[in-house]
Amino acid sequence: MSWIWHKSGRIDYLTLPKWQAEGIDVGFSTRVGGVSQAPYDSLNLGLNVGDDHAAVLENRQHWLEQWGVPLSRVAVGEQVHGTKVVWVNEEDRGRGSRELETAIPAADGLVTQGAVGLMGFFADCVPLFFYYPDLKAVGIAHAGWKGTAHKIGQKVMECFENVGGCTENAWVAIGPSIGPCCYVVDEHVAAQFRSNYHETPFLRAQEDGHYRLDLWEANKTLLLGNGVCPENIEEALTCTADNPKWFFSHRRDGARTGRMTGWISIREA
Ligand SMILES: [Zn+2]
Q: Which of the residues 101, 108, 213, 256 has the least number of beta carbons within 10 Å of its own beta carbon?
């Protein structure tokens, strides 16, 4: 079973029952059930968007309560639309969970085999979730157009392969993010995809010189090209820009909006 919607107390989120059954906690939040005021209403989990700091911390704690995890056990990367992926372990617990300054610098991807929860923040960019069963390792990546064009998903898989992980056995999930229905980009963006991908069927030229970009398909192409089995890819196929009731969207709302979280953690026995 692929992504499903789940309600826990005031919070609605998406999760993957198949992963949960394997002992991997995984979720993608909605904007519902938090304490932030407009335009961050209400479950804004991003600290870098101009929202009240205390409200964001309360929201983060509220999100983590349902997973039975304190903020002090979570690691957060400083997301810069780059492709750096960092291995984290128990020593990194708490980094970036309460303030931006301690986040793992310039890390749009995090991977771990340890007892540390990983959080990324999203408002249209594609959340990629990874589970390598043979390594008992998980990862998360922030793949906007830049991260996707420069193949952050592949960088994550290389991190696992470097320690003996088998990508043919990997599970990967693509969470809610902006869909091809709502994402039109210019030549500058299209050119970066053309220079990094052999074929770009996920870019469709429009008559006005712009392109419709399917970030889901681009990331799926990358995953398949690196050996992930199609049956191990879970796609939410849910557009953040199309669903103002449930999701923040940078493209729809502009810079002053909130962030959802992508969450993944190896459940402690
Ligand atoms: Zn859409």
A: 101
- d(CA 13, CA 197) in angstroms, rounded, equals 33
Q: How many Å lie between the centroid of ligand 1 and the Cα of residue 226? A: 27
Check whether domain 4-179+227-266 has CATH 3.60.140.10, yes or no: yes
CA of residue 183 to ligand 1 center, whole Å: 7
**Gap from CA of 188 to ligand 1 centroid (Å):** 21
C-alpha 235 – ligand 1 centre gap (Å): 15
CA 63 to ligand 1 centroid distance, Å: 26
The one-character DSSP state at 153 is H
DSSP state of 230: G
pLDDT per residue over 109-131, tens digit each?
999 999 999 999 999 999 999 99
Rounded to the nearest angstrom, the distance between the alpha carbon of 231 and the centre of ligand 1 is: 25
The phi, psi pair for 6, rounded to 5°, reads -140, 145
CA of 48 to the centre of ligand 1 (A): 24
pLDDT at 269 over 80: no
Could you count the other beta carbons within 10 Å of the beta carbon of residue 41? 16
Find the Cα–Cα–Cα–Cα dihedral 107, 13, 30, 47, rounded to 10°.
-40
Model confidence pTM above 0.90: yes
The helices-and-strands tally (H runs, E runs) of the chain is 7, 15
